[in-house]
Amino acid sequence: MTTFSVKGAGPAPTLAEMQRVQSELGVRFNDEYRDFISRNNGGEVVGDHIFDIPPDNLSDVDGIIPLGRLAYQHSLFVDQAGPDNIPIMFDSCGNQICMDMSGQNDGAIYFLEHEFPEPEALTFLAPSLSAFLALVRPDDT
Hints:
28% of the residues lie in helices and 26% in strands. By secondary structure, the protein is of the alpha+beta class. The strands form 3 sheets. Strands 5-6-7-8-9 form a 5-stranded antiparallel β-sheet. The chain has a 3-stranded antiparallel β-sheet with strand order 4-3-10. The longest helix is centred in the middle third of the chain and has 12 residues, at 70-81.
């Protein structure tokens, strides 16, 4: 599923930990995210991996937000991202890669430019986590 290696990931979260964080956020994690965070809980991406931001920009994936920090990270960006877009990864400039956990667009991935006001802050990237990860590629430059 991932197109990159992750180092320094913490232990896989327990079911109780996942339920606690879901309750704090008022969302329900989909199976794809539960599997992803179980394997990459707070890890740092090895090497440089980039993805396109429409219409003509690039960013990178620098790390995975650990499950235990999701609620805090979300609180920092809720005004820009809204209540259902939860930051799950970040780039090297402090921008966030968010997953829509609303139930309607469940699993859609958005780029959150932290310096832009809402609603300009969010850019749609992919309909699912696996579709987003398929867009991430090594930076060969």
